[in-house]
Structures are given as C-alpha cells and as structure tokens.
Specification:
This protein is an alpha/beta fold. The chain contains eleven helices and 21 strands. The longest helix has 26 residues. The C terminus is likely disordered.
Length: about 400
Amino acid sequence: MARSSAYAAIDVGSTKVCAVVGDIARSGDVEIIGVGVAATRGLRKGVVVNIDETAQSVQAAVEKAERSSGTKIVSAHVGVSGNHVSSLNNKGIVAISHADRLITSEDVMRVLEAARTVNIPSNREILHIIPRSYTLDGQEGVQNPVGMHGFRLDVETHIITGAVTSIQNLTKCVRGVGVEVEDLVLQPLASAEAVLTKDEREMGVVLADIGGGTTDIAVFVDGSVWHTAILPVGGYHISNDVAVALRTPFPTAEDLKAKHGHAMPEMVDPNDTIEVKAFGVETSRRLSRRELSAVIHARCQEILEMVALEIKRSGYDSLLPAGLVLTGGVANLEGIADLARETVQLPVRIGVPHGITGLIETLTNPAYATAAGLLLWSVNHAEVAAEETRGIPFGGIGKRFAFWVRELLPQ
C-alpha cells in the first residue's frame, strides 16, 4: 500500500460494519476510492457486547476497504449509536469585553464552552454541542453573530451525551485493529450529511434512520439540529417476528423480508406465493406473500408509531413542513414510505446518499447512509478542526465546537 488514506470512516452498525475510504477529486467532489463491508458480530442494539467479535468484524471491513483502495487506514471517523445516547438543551451566556464590542469566532467558542457547563453524571460523556440559535443583546434568531457588535451573547445549544463505558468499548474495538479514532459522530447526524438537502434542514425536517438494531432520529429546524433520539428497535425485530411467525430460521426470515417483504399487505396480490424453508421434517412449504407482509406490517407500523410519538414528544411536530426522510436498511422495504405517510401524517421520502462520486455502486443505498455521511463529515470538517482547534484545550469537544462554529463563519 503506497500511501495512507486521506479520509476514512467506519460505520459500526448492528448488522454490518462498513469502512469507507475517500479523497477529494480534482472537481472538488468527494470521491470514494475504497469500500469494505463485513457482517457484524458482538454488537446488540448499537452497543458492544463482545469486544473480540466486534473487533474482528471491524478488522474484516477495514482490510477489505484497504485492499480495494490500495491505502492504509490509520485513522477514521466512527459512528456511534445505541439507546445509551441521550440529549438535552442548554444555554450559554458571555459578555463581550472588546473595546469595539465586535463579536469574533473566539467569542462564539467561549459561549459554546459556557453552554457546556451542564451537570451530567460522571458516567456520561459529551459527544456534541450544537448551537441552535444565538441572541445578541436581546435580539433573538441570530444565525451568525461573528462580525456583529454587541455587549452580551447568548446561545441555545443541543447537547448529545453517551455512556462512557459504551463509548470506550467501541473505541477500543476500533483502536484494537490499529485504527485511531479521529472523532465519534452520532449516526443520525452523519446520515443527515448524506441524505438531507439544505432546504429541508432550513424548512424543518425529521430524519429517521431505521437500521438493524436501532432507529435513529434527528429533527432539524432552521438549519440546525433541535432534537435527537435513539429508539431500540429496527430491522432485526422485523426479521425476528417473521422467523417466529413463520417458524423459519432467522437467515431465511432475513432473506424473505428483503426479497418478498412489503409493508402494506393490501397492496400485495393475494395469489402470490413464496417458498419458505421450515424447521423439522419439512424441507420447505408454500406460503402466501400477503401473510408474510402482514407480519412485517405490524412491526413496521409499531416502529413508525414510535417515531411519530418521538416527534410529538420533541415539541417540534408543527415545524416540519419538509416532512420525514426515511433511510437505513429498512427504508429499502417495499411500501414503507406509504405506511409512513399514513402513520406519521407527514410528507415522506426515501433518503439515498448523494454528494459522492467514484466507487458508489454499494453506497447509493439507504442502508449505507451513515457510512457515506461519516465520510462526508470527515471531509467537510477535518481540515477545519485542524485549523480551528490549535491551542484549544478541550480535546475532542474542542474539535466539535470548531465543526459547528465553521458553519457560522462567512465562506
């Protein structure tokens, strides 16, 4: 391998690990030069339950990505999820002491650090501090205070935290295969990088990434994240329902869901039949496809009702004219968008990664939104972090400050 990769990302999901290597093309686009995918073992609902097995899965994906790209992955941005992740909102206030009262990027960093002084348990770690909006001398709704004059700067932030042990275990699995963790990124934020448009973020939109073990939710209003949540249900539960209801092995249930599943049974031809592998003396049997879809429908509706309840709980359900964007592996299920429109009562579309070129055959699929988004996050923010965080004593949090401050600065 002639050179180390410029940018790399690792999505450690409940069903698969995807390692992606990218670079900047001459056109300025993000070019995918290597992809590696391996089945996940040792992870349950986004949380590591077996370090050795998870590390082996990460190693397999990393080795495949290195071979296909001809590069060595030395560090990567890594996605984090799981129901140990939680969020809260907090405010920060600072006085502007410059003689000219001109707001600088350093003042923005100070007010974000002030917002960070929130009481969280010692067993939790801050992953992200995201500015929602600024208030300057009582003037609300300021999007970019840099360059404005004022005496007092307030910020409303969305703070995302995770369990220290879960974060450390995930980090250990990645470092155990010789890859340094450049930064940890909440998976729905990464997915949003790949599938949401700027207009959707500004208008108000909710992203639901329905993966194998979790459903990751992020609500965007006025261009920023206002609410995040992780629900402990996903595609695994749909497949498990199929396996139990049809009395078939789990791998067969996964295959049936992917090839013949439908979230709306009434849209399935009642005469369609499928062959189902069975336990016991029977080798296989014929079954109505509509019966399979009825099992899938019940669990999908439950997941979408949980999404709708979380949107309502956030308090921003009336601020989402851009509706719901579904991504993740379950978004490939036929009829899921129609069921979501009925259940959530919002406009719905399926989110497919965009903004990437090169080896994108695998990644242009909702199931790989997080992996593609992590790489886009890495490319969009890595150089900024190096420049903005020189001398900042807050480590990873300092980098995350810089990421979001960069979004405010004039281009």
